[in-house]
Amino acid sequence: MLVNPAFKLIGKNEIQVRRRGFTMAAGNTRKGSEEHKTSGFTLIEIAIVLVVIGLLLSGGLVALAPVVRNAQVTTTENKLDKIEDALVLYAIQNNCLPCPADSSDAGAQAGIHQTGAGANSATCAGGGSNACFPGATPANGVRNIVPWITLGLSQADVTDEWGTYISYHVSSQDFTGTNCDDFSNTAVASSSGTGGFTRTGTTFPIGCLDVSDADPGGVSAITTAAAYVLISHGPDTSGGRAAQSDAARTNPRGAGNTVQEQNDDGTCDSSGTVCHQDDAIDVDGNNYFDDIVRWKTGPVLVYDCGEAACGSP
What we know:
With about 325 residues, this protein is α+β, with helices and mostly antiparallel strands. The chain has 4 helices and 10 strands; from the N terminus they run βββααβββββαββα. The protein has helices at about 30-35, 45-95, 260, 300-305, and strands at about 5-10, 15, 20-25, 100, 145, 165-170, 210, 220-230, 275, 290-295. The strands form 3 sheets. Strands 6, 7, 8, 9 and 10 form a 5-stranded mixed sheet that branches. A hairpin with an 8-residue loop joins strand 7 (about 210) and strand 8 (about 220-230). Helix 2 packs across helix 4 (about 300-305).
């Protein structure tokens, strides 16, 4: 029998097709075609998968938010620790606490403590009215921030995890509270609270900054004798100053949020507005509070200085 040269009879049910280079079983052509069918998802199946992925992602983000916030709080607490250590070291070296820096200063003046007429040349303020507020009054304490250059820190060290400068207030003659020593002055402390920072005998310097709790059921005093107060204005940033622009951070809950507002006034003084410290109160409206606050009294600060420092024997 004559056979086309393109084909070669192999067996009863099998023909080799030379031209295409493959062997095809004559009795299995249907099976072979079924094996080469391409499978895929329908549009409905793809839509269902996308919906499930979206639900998983949204649920994961909601669960992640508290973790991120806790990490931010922890990092800010660590920065406050670092600032407090730097304040103690400054006190040991200079027998005073530095005046605050002004958040509006730029260039060479940025991050340097403000003293006297604002020359920033004196290590300590030296006492007197407006010693830490050049040509102004304590009312401008809203711009009081940690003097990072003076303390040997970086700008990042004094900026909380929400991009806001950490506020810093120091007990000085600019405040009119009674029995108040001037911690920006190297003079010896007075038993009547009208001296400076340096301990003399058993007489320790007395601060005059006031800190109360933020209990919505009734605010109570925590101390009326803080030497300094540090304030991170928290996740909502209310009352702080933006680290890069010095823009005032507004209160997203409005002026009715009284306790949170009082940490915005920049005085921490009984003659003006006291500052507040408390655990976070996560309640919308007038009771919300998220500031992170640190302070020390004069005796605690002097003891932290150690022996033969800050007037200690």
